[in-house]
Amino acid sequence: MKKQIIFTPQARHYLKDLPDQVKAEFNANFTVLSETGRLEFPDGCKLQNGLFEVRVAMGGNAYRTIYCYAHQNEIWILNGFTKKTQKTPERELDKALAIMRRNGL
């Protein structure tokens, strides 16, 4: 069953200012996520606490969005960030969890 992708304002704000090529990669990943309900590594990975990551690497930068599954057919893109380290920053996970709570997910 096809999943509906829902973007929070935080995610929309992050995505709108990215380079066009990065946006295109994210959109391709969102399409796969919508059609299959999941992403395989290296395009996606499981984080913790019901959170997952969409991954785009380009030009030496690591672009990420964090998402969760909600209800039966919804995938919520919670927020996004660009990182320089291997590990996902704890503050980004905390931010995503707070957005989940605010939206009753």
Do you know the CATH architecture?
Answer: 2-Layer Sandwich
What is the spatial order of strands in the main beta sheet? 1-5-4-3-2
Under CATH, the topology can be stated as YaeB-like fold
The total beta strand count reads: 5
Order of helices and strands: EHHEEEEH
Sheet of most strands:
5 strands, mixed
**Top-tier CATH class:** Alpha Beta
Question: What is the count of helical runs?
Answer: 3
Low-confidence blocks of residues = none
Helix content: 25-40%
Q: What global shape is seen?
A: globular
Measured by DSSP, the beta-strand proportion falls in: 25-35%
Q: Return the structural class.
A: alpha+beta
The whole-angstrom Rg is 13 Å
Mean pLDDT: 93
User: Whole-Å distance between the termini?
Assistant: 20 Å
How are the elements arranged and paired?
Elements lengths: L3 E4 L1 H8 L3 H17 L7 E3 L5 E7 L2 E10 L3 E10 L6 H13 L3
Parallel strand pairs: 1-5
Antiparallel strand pairs: 2-3, 3-4, 4-5
Labels describing this entry:
36% helix; globular; five-stranded mixed sheet
Give your account of this protein's structure:
The chain has 105 residues and is of the alpha+beta class. The protein contains three helices and five strands, in the order βααββββα. It has helices at residues 9-16, 20-36, 90-102, and strands at residues 4-7, 44-46, 52-58, 61-70, 74-83. It has a single domain (4-102), classed as RelE-like (YaeB-like fold, 2-Layer Sandwich), CATH 3.30.2310. The longest helix is centred in the N-terminal third of the chain and has 17 residues, at 20-36. 24% of the residues are buried. It is globular and about 35 Å long. The model has no long low-confidence stretch (mean pLDDT 93). Strands 1-5-4-3-2 form a five-stranded mixed sheet.
